[in-house]
Amino acid sequence: MCRRVAPNSHLTCLLLSSSSRSDWKGRAVDTPVLHSAPATLAVPLRWSLRSPALPTPAHPQFLLLLLLDSIAIGWASSAAPLICAAFRLFRSACGARPSSSGTVSMEPFPREQAAARICMVSSFATELLEIKSKEPSLHVLVIPGNPGIAAFYKDFVEALYENLGGQASVTAVGHISHSQKDSEHGRLFSMHEQIDHKVDFIEQELQHSERSIVLVGHSIGAYIGLEVFKRLQNKIKMFVGLYPFLKLNKNSVTQSAIGYIARSSLLSKGVSLLASFIGSLQPSIIRGIVRRFLGTSWSVTAVDVACCHLLKYHTMRNVLFMAMTEFQKLTEEPDWMFVRAKEDKIAFLFGVDDHWGPLSHLEEISKRAPGVTLSVETEGHTHGYCCNEPGSFWVADYVANFIKTQKRH
Length: 409
Fold this sequence. Notes:
Belongs to the AB hydrolase superfamily. LDAH family. This protein is about 40% helix and about 15% strand. The chain is α/β, with parallel strands linked by helices. α1 (about 60-75) crosses α7 (about 265-280), α4 (about 190-205) packs across α5 (about 220-230) and α6 (about 255-260) packs across α10. The radius of gyration is 20 Å and the shape is globular. The relative contact order is 0.18. The model is unreliable at about 1-65 and about 65-110 (pLDDT under 50).
C-alpha cells in the first residue's frame, strides 16, 4: 500500500507492473516497494507509462449528445449510420481503446452479494447498493460519479467487502433521480443538492453508529466526498478519491462539448428524449446497442445497468443538469486549505490519459498538499473501472490496502 509521500517530495506512488524496472530514460533502477498492492513499484512521478485503456462510462451523456445529428437530419432516413458513427466517436472521446495485456486476472471466488434497496433520505427516494457486515469495525461509503447510479459499482462494492475481510459494511449511495424510476417527477438536482443529500444520508442513516466512516468518491464523487468530509469532520475517518474530477480541464475537447450541450436546455431535452427512445426499444436491441458500442469490455452487470437505469428521460436530464452545475463550480480552485489540514487522511488514485483527472492535477496536489497519498494506476482500467470486473477488483484492492494501512497508524 502506498505510504504518505514525504513533504516537499516530488515523488508519488506510480503503480507499474513489476516487469517495468527502468527510469524515464529507459535505464534500470532499483526502486523500493512502498506498498503491498499486487506486482507494483513506486517510481518518480515524471515517468508516464502508457497502457491501453478499457472503455469508460465517463459522462455517457456525450454519447447521446453526438446522436442529436440523427434527429436534425431525419430519423427514418439516416439514424442507423449516424448511431454507429456517434457511438464510435463517443468511445474515442472517452479514451476507450481495445484492452490487451495488463488487466487483472482473478480466480472466481464466492463473494457476498450486494443488496439493492430504496431508502428515503430527506423525502427523496435514494437507490442504495450495500453489504452489511455482522461485526463491522467501520463503514465504507461509496459516492458515485456522474451518472450517479449505485448499481454500476456492484462488482467494486463486493470486491471491497471481500478485501476488507467482511469486517466493514460497504454502501454505494446513488444520486437523487439518477435512478430506474422517476420518483421525483421530473425535478432536476444540482451538484450542491447532491452534496446536501449525501450529508443528510450520513446524518440520518449513520447517526447512531459508533463505527468510523470512510468516504470513497469516484470522479465528481471525489469532489462531493471532499465537501462531505469538510462538513462532517468529526464523523469521517479518511477519504479516498478515485480518478478524481476536481477542476475543469481546459484542454479537454470532451468536457467543452459536454458543457456546451449541458448549458442548453433545448439540447439537453433533445438528448434525453433520444435516450428514452432508445430505452423504449426491445430489451435485446437495447442490450445489443450498449454492448456493441459502449460495453465491449463491460461486465454483464454494467450493460444491464446502462439499459435499465441510464436510458431514461429523467436520468439523462439529471445527468446533464448536474454536469452543467459541476462545470460552473469547478471553475473555482479546490479548498486547498482543507486538503492540507487533512492531508494525512486523504488519498487520490489517478489514471493515465484520463482527461477528467489529468496528471497535471496530481502534480498540483503534490505541491499544494504534499502529505496527501497520491497514486497513478497504469494497468489500463482508467476512469470507468467500475464497469468491468478486472478494474473493480484492482481498485478495490487499492482502496482496501489504503484503509488497512491507515488503521495501523
